[in-house]
Amino acid sequence: MPSPQNWPYALRPKRALFRIVPMTMTGPVSPAGLQQGIGTDAGYWSATLSFGVFTPDQMREWEGFIASLDGTLGEVLIPAFAEDLAPSLPGYGVDIGGIPYSDGAMFSDGSGHTQPTTRFHLAADADLRATQITVTRELGGDLRRGMKFSIVDRMHIITSIPTVSGAESTFEIRPPTRAYAAAGAAVEFGHPVCRMQLVSDDEGGLERIARAPSEGSIQLRESAHGLS
């Protein structure tokens, strides 16, 4: 299978809903009206993204990108679109831009280098399907329950209040880690991504509205490709 594509920078949703879909089964209802449920797994990510497509360039980008996925066969790295919730340094966003070269020069378009304000890594190995990890903070603010992060291209969320010891924080996560990761591996809080696929082959149709912006939406689910 080809490598996952990056989500087009020009298409930022006006609404984004990410949630973990639990994988549960329920039994029959007892005569007393009770029903038991069991969890078959810790669940997977689901996303619904809604867009306003205003310009011809955005419309072409949308339709071309959706076509390139070949329905549910293609994989895409979806950003969490939650930079405001990242553990960035107080008074800054997740990136500091406009940084010149050492001689004061900028790029030809007038922009400069970008420096992230968050940098974390695993303090210890994380086994496959681990539900607790410890990370070391090199740069950034305090970690909080509810923050999303990614290890490589798999997204997770902190589900417990972190226990802090110096630069290290230990916390529970969902979903479980999707692969083994060695100590020192980067833990991305500033720009987390989730490896996803369209939920069906007919997702992504863009309705053309005369003399008005078009609107589109897609539903995605976490890709199961390569998972154990």
What does this structure look like?
The protein has one helix spanning 56-68; strands at residues 5-6, 15-26, 37-53, 76-79, 95-99, 113-116, 119-122, 132-139, 148-151, 154-158, 163-165, 168-174, 186-187, 193-198, 214-222. Strands 7, 8, 9, 10, 11, 12 and 13 form a seven-stranded antiparallel β-sheet that branches. The protein has a six-stranded mixed β-sheet with strand order 1-4-14-15-3-2. A two-stranded antiparallel sheet has the order 5-6. The chain has two domains: 1-26 and 38-81 and 195-228, Phosphorylase Kinase, domain 1 (2-Layer Sandwich), CATH 3.30.200.190; 83-91 and 114-191, Beta Barrel (Elongation Factor Tu (Ef-tu), domain 3). A hairpin with a 2-residue loop joins β11 (163-165) and β12 (168-174). With 228 residues, it is mostly beta strands. 6% of the residues lie in helices and 40% in strands. It is built from one helix and 15 strands.
What CATH calls the topology of the largest domain is: Phosphorylase Kinase, domain 1
What is the string of SSEs from the N terminus onward?
EEEHEEEEEEEEEEEE
Look at the helices and sheets and give the structural class.
mainly beta
Unreliable stretches (pLDDT < 50, length at least 5) are none
The description of the largest β-sheet is: 7 strands, antiparallel
> How much helix, percentage-wise, in residues?
under 10%
**How many domains, as an integer?**
2
- Would you tell me the overall average pLDDT? 86
Oligomer: single chain
Strand content: 35-45%
| Radius of gyration, CA atoms, in whole angstroms | 20 Å
Counted beta strands: 15
Number of helices: 1
Q: N-to-C terminal Cα separation, in Å?
A: 16 Å
Shape: globular
State the CATH architecture of the largest domain.
Answer: 2-Layer Sandwich
Instruction: Please identify the top-level CATH class of the largest domain.
Output: Alpha Beta
